[in-house]
Amino acid sequence: MKKHLIISLFLILTCSLRAAATGFSNESLQYKVMFKWGLVNKQAGTATLTLRNDGTRYQTSLVARSQPWADKIYSVRDTLLGTMQRDGLKPLRYEKRAHESSEFKHDVVNFSYLGSRVKGSCNRYVEKKGKVTVNNHKTELEAYGTTLDMLSSFYYMRTLPYEKWKPGHTVTVNIFSGKRKELLTIKYHGIETVKSSKRQYKCYHITFIFTGENRTKTSDDMDAWISADTRRIPIRLEGSLPVGKVHCIYDGD
User: Fold this and answer.
1) CB atoms within 10 A of CB 106
2) Cα–Cα distance, 55 to 65 (Å, whole number)
3) Of 1, 14, 82, 174, whose CB count within 10 A is highest?
4) CA–CA separation, 81 vs 97, rounded Å?
5) What is the tens place of the pLDDT at every residue in 109-124?
6) E-strand spans in 54-116?
7) The pTM is what?
8) By the 8 A CB rule, do 205 and 225 touch?
């Protein structure tokens, strides 16, 4: 669970893509990361999700940082970088630089396409407590159909036609997490009103379900609320930790 939650804003986002047809505009979305455990409800970090449109491609990034008090328990300095085709939101390159406690990981995935076949060439470097444990470990991944990475999934979920769905509707896609292929199922629950740090939003409520190819869960589920307007902003993300929960709350542009 920790892997997906931190990546998805400390951690944390094709079919009839409405937003992809018109294109995303340049944006920089700010989030507060709150830790909740019993009566404790304290800001544990910040995250910024940024997109730049260069005409034919999107350059995206997610930067997550833990607060000084949280550093004493579990320090996080994560940066995700991604390049996607503007047409169809196909990922071309995904990079994860994760400093988590005493461990540093650097993953790079390069995507290639041949018809419906998607290949991911993954390189990994891991350093723990100053000692290199993995260096240039290469993994070749392959999938057929819609395939995402942990960063492009944020934009994919914002383009789905929730207004046409009934509660209980699901869609499943492939996802390359950096070292392995998984399945990501997005389940729609309906429209709910959600409060962020500044106002209330009418939102589409969805759940992320991560499984292996045998449909066995690889992590706990995560819930997300996407604004039911033209921007489709991720307003809130919630997930469980070994102790307590983490809430990622939209804090403006």
Assistant:
1) 17
2) 30
3) 82
4) 8
5) 999 999 999 999 999 8
6) 57-66, 76-85, 91-100, 103-114
7) 0.83
8) yes
Cα gap 34→249, rounded to integer Å: 8
In 146-218, the DSSP E strands lie at: 147-149, 170-176, 181-195, 200-211
The single-letter code of the amino acid at 180 is: R
Contact 90, 111 (CB under 8 A): yes
Using alpha carbons, select from 251, 250, 242 the residue that is nearest to residue 73.
242
Output the six-digit token pair for 192: 């709910």
- The torsion angles phi and psi of 4, rounded to 5 degrees, stand at -70, -35
| C-alpha dihedral sign at 165, 148, 143, 10 | negative
CA distances from 64 to 53, 69, 81, 95, 197 (A): 21, 15, 12, 14, 18
Domain count, the chain: 1
49 and 58 Cβ atoms separated by less than 8 Å = no
Q: Tell me, what amino acid is at 26?
A: N
- For residues 229, 230, 231, 232, the Cα torsion angle rounded to the nearest 10 degrees is 50
Q: What are phi and psi of 105, to 5 degrees?
A: -125, 140
Q: What is the pLDDT of residues 162-206, one digit of tens each?
A: 999 999 999 999 999 777 899 999 999 999 999 887 789 999 999
| Pair 5, 208: CB distance under 8 Å | no
